[in-house]
Write a structure and sequence with these properties.
- By secondary structure, the protein is of the alpha+beta class.
- The strands form three sheets. It has a six-stranded antiparallel beta sheet with strand order 3-9-10-6-5-7. A two-stranded antiparallel sheet has the order 1-2.
- Strand 1 and strand 2 form a beta hairpin.
- Helix 2 runs antiparallel to helix 3.
- 23% of the residues are buried.
Length: 166
């Protein structure tokens, strides 16, 4: 089984799996005519210590965006699929999300990734992309939709009580 506990390492919060830094912040970058977009420098730095600069892109469970997972962090979905009863409806559905709808991409020499086809359609991407950090992964949005989601999330956050009665 994979470990995903948060550990302290040199004063930085990291996940136990591969000691990867967290993805923080929101960034907007242009997407070129070929579908390439530069991953924000702070996001690239979050996993620069790893030799493998591979990302797994997949449609998010949050409608209207794409999730981007460094390969070591994506293994938690694989573990969930492996733990499910084989060939159950739930396993088949999750396999579709985790494997069939996912795409493996690598950063090019300029720190860009290619987002085209089905994934670009899922997030309605055009000439700009909005990146939103989510800790162990990040989201890729059409800028207007991403900013609206961020604002809606901010409006809801004060009502959350982290498990205490509201």
């Amino acid at each position: 089984m994979f470990s995903h506990e948060v550990v302290e390492k040199g004063g930085e919060r990291c996940f136990g799996l591969g000691a990867m830094k967290q993805f923080f912040g929101s960034h907007e970058n242009k997407r070129d005519a070929k579908g390439r977009v530069s991953v924000p420098a702070s996001f690239r730095a979050a996993w620069k210590a790893h030799q493998d600069m591979t990302l797994i892109l997949r449609p998010s469970f949050i409608e209207g965006c794409v999730e981007a997972w460094p390969l070591p962090n994506y293994e938690r979905f694989q573990a969930k699929v492996d733990a499910m009863p084989e060939m159950s409806r739930e396993q088949v559905g999750l396999q579709t999300q985790v494997y069939s709808d996912a795409e493996e991409v690598e950063l090019d020499g300029q720190g860009r990734i290619l987002i085209t086809g089905y994934l670009a359609e899922c997030a309605r991407l055009s000439d700009s992309v909005f990146f939103m950090g989510r800790g162990d992964h990040f989201l890729i949005w059409e800028p207007g939709a991403g900013k609206a989601f961020r604002e809606a999330s901010r409006a809801m956050a004060p009502r959350l009580s982290f498990g205490a009665a509201s």
